[in-house]
Design brief:
The chain has about 375 residues and is α/β, with parallel strands linked by helices. About 40% of the residues lie in helices and about 20% in strands.
Length: about 375
């Protein structure tokens, strides 16, 4: 079983906090890039004939800049070249201002059955400094329209740890999204990435970031508020009503294979990880020449061990001890570290798995890093 991820590197505007690969000046070569995406799907298909494709995910960038016809053309290429008859989830990331009723209907008719709407905030003040393309009102109406059109698989993305975001304001944000009736919420702490506009603002003193204590308090409020509303925290940043998990992302966290298509996209075939060149024009040229514009890394057992820990500990299922043991034989020092985390109340060990407790989720990265096998 595997998934397909397609990176759409188009954006109408540059968000101040974003360091993903995208372009705001793409119209002159839009058609050529879409043809290249289709060609890459065909070039990679022979290596994936034994895999059953179950999920497709359009990420970016801003995939919602694509029309229903453009989405349908890419999906047709998938169905024509892959074992995709069992596809059960097709997700499109979208910006609220792209979610007109006509566009929502077109995406649905093209085959999309799940939306991930990038709200980020329901306050215009926060959206303004982020340089988002939508208003708070457009965020509300996008969700309402999507539900009215019939998208019953719907996630809303929010951000916490924002400058000047109080506990009360964050609680109001959560209550607003709960009130919309969505069944999946993804909430991420603002990260100040190097070489972004936000990073320069922080350096100059124009923006004052929240501190670690504020971020932890908002995370704890997030978890408790959503739990009361019937959401299960099945991954550190992802919360769902019963049975409404993101199947595509869950496959990532469980270490399953996925094809990655498009400039800067990262893929995994179970043994190797690859990533495409992060340059749109170079990507197009190489694909047109029949060359995959990729860098391939063959993962060692140590690499796979560490990756399994990193992603698995973030989920409610934890990490399989049998899978870890199949990759590497743990030494005494590793078990000593694990025991120390267990004694601290942040890690629990069952007969089959290693899991984080609620307090451990605040330290997920630190715990995984400490348990990495180095050298």
């Amino acid at each position: 079983m595997a998934g397909i991820y397609i990176h759409i590197p188009f954006c109408a505007k540059q968000c101040t906090y974003c360091d993903f690969h995208f372009s705001t000046t793409f119209e002159s070569y839009r058609g050529n890039l879409l043809k290249a995406l289709s060609s890459e799907l065909q070039l990679r298909a022979p290596s994936w004939q034994k895999e059953v494709i179950e999920t497709v995910y359009f990420g970016g960038g801003t995939p919602s800049l694509l029309s229903g016809a453009e989405i349908e053309a890419l999906l047709s290429t998938i169905y024509a070249n892959y074992n995709a008859s069992a596809v059960k989830e097709i997700t499109l990331e979208c910006n609220p201002d792209d979610c007109s009723t006509d566009q929502l209907i077109a995406w649905k008719m093209a085959g999309v059955n799940r939306l991930s709407i990038g709200i980020q905030s329901f306050t215009n003040e926060q959206l303004s400094w982020m340089n988002r393309t939508h208003t708070a009102h457009e965020g509300f109406t996008a969700v309402e329209r999507a539900i009215a059109v019939g998208f019953d698989q719907l996630t809303v993305d929010l951000m916490y740890g924002l400058p000047d975001l109080s506990q009360q304001a964050w609680l109001e944000q959560l209550n607003r999204v709960i009130g919309l009736g969505v069944n999946h919420i993804s909430a991420y702490c603002l990260t100040i990435e190097e070489k972004t506009v936000l990073a320069s603002w922080v350096k100059s003193g124009k923006i004052h970031p929240s501190n670690a204590d504020q971020q932890s308090e908002q995370f704890e409020l997030l978890v408790s508020t959503l739990a009361k509303a019937g959401f299960e925290q099945y991954e550190i940043s992802n919360f769902a009503k019963e049975g409404k998990y993101s199947q595509h992302n869950t496959a990532y966290w469980q270490g399953k294979k996925y094809v990655a298509i498009g400039p800067s996209a990262h893929g995994y075939d179970g043994t190797n990880r690859y990533w495409n060149v992060a340059n749109n024009q170079l990507y197009i040229r190489q694909i047109e020449e029949g060359v995959l514009p990729e860098t391939v890394e063959e993962l060692t057992n140590q690499d796979r061990f560490n990756e399994l820990l990193m992603v698995g500990l973030r989920t409610k299922w934890g990490v399989s001890k049998a899978e870890l043991k199949a990759l590497l034989v743990h030494d005494e020092d590793w078990y000593t570290k694990l025991e120390s985390w267990k004694q601290s109340g942040t890690v629990v060990e069952t007969e089959t798995h290693i899991l984080l407790t609620s307090s451990g989720r605040l330290l997920a990265d630190a715990i995984a890093s400490d348990l990495f096998v180095i050298g």
